[in-house]
TrEMBL record:
InterPro entries: AB_hydrolase_fold, CarbesteraseB, Carboxylesterase_B_CS, Neuroligin/BSAL. The keyword Zinc-finger does not apply. It comes from the Eukaryota. This is Carboxylesterase type B domain-containing protein. It comes from Euphydryas editha.
Length: 168
């Protein structure tokens, strides 16, 4: 009696690994394009959200309608909202302290600096790393502004016209 034909375990895993590494850049392409659109988004009066009042002060963000190719609903986007005081000086290595209040209306329309970090090095030409290389290449522009003062939130809320709520 002949033994049943089996595919070696290593070749199955290798096939899956290569397939994922080839498909990952395509799956991530849509998200990267949305973020590129956000970075270049004009901030005129028609696209600003209504004013929200928080403990720290008033806040306005952007109303974003992703392109039709994404099949996504509009969102209210609030970028760079401080959630704690900057961890510098006497606050370094201490528990977070509430963000100080601001006067006037804070325009939450731009990404805040990111925390200092080092991007991982990836060996060129390694097939499983090609998807990760592509991803890091697109991510790099968002990591150009680094600062220890990096305790900020980006908040995305479904846009529902005047009924939209931003709760803190």
């Amino acid at each position: 009696m002949a033994a049943p034909h089996t595919t070696p375990f290593i070749s199955q895993n290798l096939f899956i690994y290569i397939a994922i590494s080839l498909l990952l850049p395509m799956a991530d392409e849509g998200a990267a394009k949305v973020y590129e659109d956000i970075r270049n988004f004009p901030t005129d009066e028609k696209r600003l959200t209504r004013e929200y009042h928080l403990r720290q002060g008033a806040l306005r963000g952007l109303i974003v309608k992703p392109g039709k190719q994404y099949d996504l609903q509009p969102v209210e986007m609030f970028l760079g909202i401080p959630y704690a005081a900057a961890p510098v000086g006497h606050l370094r290595f201490m528990p977070p302290v509430s963000a100080p209040p601001w006067s006037g209306v804070k325009m939450a329309t731009h990404f805040a600096p990111v925390c200092p970090q080092t991007l991982p090095t990836i060996k060129k030409g390694n097939p499983p790393s090609l998807g990760r290389q592509h991803y890091l290449h697109r991510l790099k522009p968002f990591l150009t502004q680094e600062s220890e003062d990096c305790l900020y939130l980006n908040i995305y809320v479904p846009y529902r016209g005047e009924e939209s709520l931003l709760l803190f």
